[in-house]
Write a structure and sequence with these properties.
By secondary structure, the chain is mainly alpha-helical. The protein is built from 14 helices and three strands. Helix 6 packs across helix 10 and helix 7 packs parallel to helix 11.
């Protein structure tokens, strides 16, 4: 049996940089940084380490201001958001390194702050008719199709993030009370959602006739050995379903599982729901995250 491995699992830091970086990640976890953010920060530090090693800085303590300035110059061409986030990561790293004896100088204050400009963009949405067509066009004849349909139905009807749908455990569903209870991966806060009847039957169909026999606590699993938790983003699945349903989407507008969340928020606002009611239903930490959906139609703006 051959187990699939991602490039991330095959790649490690050098012996000189690994102790500091891994301790830094443990520190970030204790500070509440989620696993996805840790993965992103790990990628940034891989790039930094590669840059430094190619400039004969084999140990972190050898880093000096010219190294930092040269690396910042190498970021030219990236968006302001990427540069800002990268430099913010390095500021915390250098502060941690100084406080824990990995460097004699605290260079955190020497790293400039780049203003993070966020490009304004209207959220992409599906109309209720579009959502119905997408779900109806899903191929449920095969096991993988039953899995895709159950996940699509779960996200499209409840607005659950795909990251939370992949993390759904058997214990999350109360079939008697018809509720779904999860700890949101992004905010680590609890969320309870109604288990709609059509969603429940889609999950049951998958569990009885599509899910591989696997000793896994997660409801949705990959359909290739060793049958572990799903890791797909389902973006390709959504695009294929949209094409099959005959829905025309502007090529410049990216679509994916998150589009269903946008669609639910817009539909709820259009039906008269208040932002303060929609925000907790979608798991938004603040109502401000929901306010942008009023911009999708002239009536809601008015």
């Amino acid at each position: 049996m051959i187990f699939k491995q991602s490039s991330l699992t095959l790649k490690g830091f050098s012996n000189e940089y690994k102790p500091l970086f891994e301790e830094f990640f443990d520190y970030l976890r204790k500070q509440g940084l989620c696993d996805n953010s840790i993965i992103t920060w790990r990628g940034r530090l891989f790039c930094l380490e590669y840059f430094l090693l190619n400039r004969n800085s084999e140990r972190f303590e050898q880093i000096e201001i010219p190294h930092i300035n040269e690396y910042i110059e190498s970021l030219a061409g990236f968006s302001n958001s990427t540069i800002s986030a990268t430099l913010g990561c390095f500021r915390r790293l250098f502060a941690y390194a100084y406080e824990n004896g990995y460097h004699a100088v605290n260079y955190a204050g020497a790293i400039p702050t780049v203003r993070r400009t966020k490009e304004y963009r209207l959220p992409n949405i599906f109309t209720p008719d579009d959502v119905a067509k997408i779900l109806e066009s899903s191929n449920r004849e095969y096991p993988i199709g039953k899995c895709n349909f159950a996940v699509l139905m779960l996200v499209a009807r409840t607005g659950l993030r795909i990251s939370d749908a992949r993390e759904l455990k058997f214990s999350a569903i109360d079939w008697d009370a018809k509720t779904i209870s999860v700890i949101r991966k992004k905010t680590r806060k609890p969320l309870e959602l109604p288990l709609f009847e059509d969603v429940g039957w889609a999950i049951i169909d998958y569990l009885k006739h599509g899910r591989p026999i696997a000793d896994c606590e997660y409801m949705f699993v990959s359909h290739q050995a060793p049958y572990t938790k799903l890791s797909l983003a389902f973006q390709k699945t959504v695009v294929e379903a949209v094409c099959k349903a005959g829905i025309n989407i502007d090529a410049n507008k990216p679509i994916g599982m998150h589009t269903f969340r946008h669609s639910i928020a817009t539909a709820m606002l259009a039906s008269g729901a208040k932002i303060t009611d929609i925000a907790p239903a979608l798991g938004h930490a603040e109502p401000k995250s929901t306010e942008r959906y009023i911009n999708t139609t002239v009536d809601m703006l008015r």
